[in-house]
Amino acid sequence: MKEVALVILAYLIGSIPTSVWISRSMFRIDIRDYGSGNAGATNTFRVLGSKWGSVVMLIDLVKGLIAVKLAFILPFYAENDFARTNFQIGLGLAAVLGHIFPIWADFRGGKGVATLLGLVMGISPISALSCVAVFLLVLYLTRFVSLSSILASMAFPIFILVIYNVHNPTYRIFAIAVALLVILTHQKNISRLLTGSESKAPILRYRDRRKGRDLD
């Protein structure tokens, strides 16, 4: 019964619609009426700029991190590493579900990438930092937040299964599922990337403009 209560709490934490609340309170708009119509960090970068996009990404990440840490409330999971990891995956997924279908915002949320990262960071910080490195590298090279998210998620099971060789079978399955989930939820972004219509994040623009002048 306590586990169920914590899972519900994790869902409610994940349901906090960061971008929706920020766009309404700071800009008097609903972020979902602009750009891609998504309530995640990528669309916030696109519509509100890098400052607020970064704020949304950070808060959404913390939602996943807090959710998995709820496992330590129960003594059994605090003392049992294997059981705790499995329970934390459940808690984290509940938070991701809340982010995608937030009860506080008409069940129209984001894609859950930042919250997924917070989940991984709470369970396996080294793996999370490795994925962050992939994300930042791709973002620096391309300025596509969506492409950075997709490639970082695809790198995650490689880190878990091959490089760090995590033995927990549930976590191994989870890593593969994460990559598939991110690819599935980014189908429209993938289509726009292939057609060249995907918007770039408003960061490093001065670098690109300088390169353009140099080419001229």
What does the model show?
There is one protein chain. This protein has one domain (2-207). It has helices at residues 2-14, 18-27, 41-48, 50-69, 75-79, 81-100, 113-123, 125-142, 145-163, 169-185, 187-195, 205-215. Helix 1 crosses helix 6, helix 3 (41-48) runs antiparallel to helix 4 (50-69) and helix 7 runs antiparallel to helix 8. It has twelve helices and no strands.
Search tags:
216 residues, 12 helices
List the helices and strands and how they pair.
Layout: H1 2-14, H2 18-27, H3 41-48, H4 50-69, H5 75-79, H6 81-100, H7 113-123, H8 125-142, H9 145-163, H10 169-185, H11 187-195, H12 205-215
Strand portion? under 5%
What oligomeric state do the depicted chains represent? single chain
Helix content: over 70%
Q: Secondary-structure element order, as H and E?
A: HHHHHHHHHHHH
Mean pLDDT: 91
Query: How many distinct helices?
Result: 12
Tell me how many strands there are: 0
Sheet of most strands: none
Task: Kindly provide the radius of gyration, computed on alpha-carbon positions and rounded to a whole number of angstroms.
Answer: 18 Å
Low-confidence runs (pLDDT<50, min 5 residues)? none
What is the domain tally? 1
Our measurement of the CA-to-CA distance between the termini, rounded to an integer number of angstroms, reads: 67 Å
Net shape? globular
How does the helix and strand content classify structurally? mainly alpha
Question: How would you briefly describe this protein structure?
Answer:
The protein has 216 residues and is mainly α. It contains 12 helices and no strands. The mean pLDDT is 91.
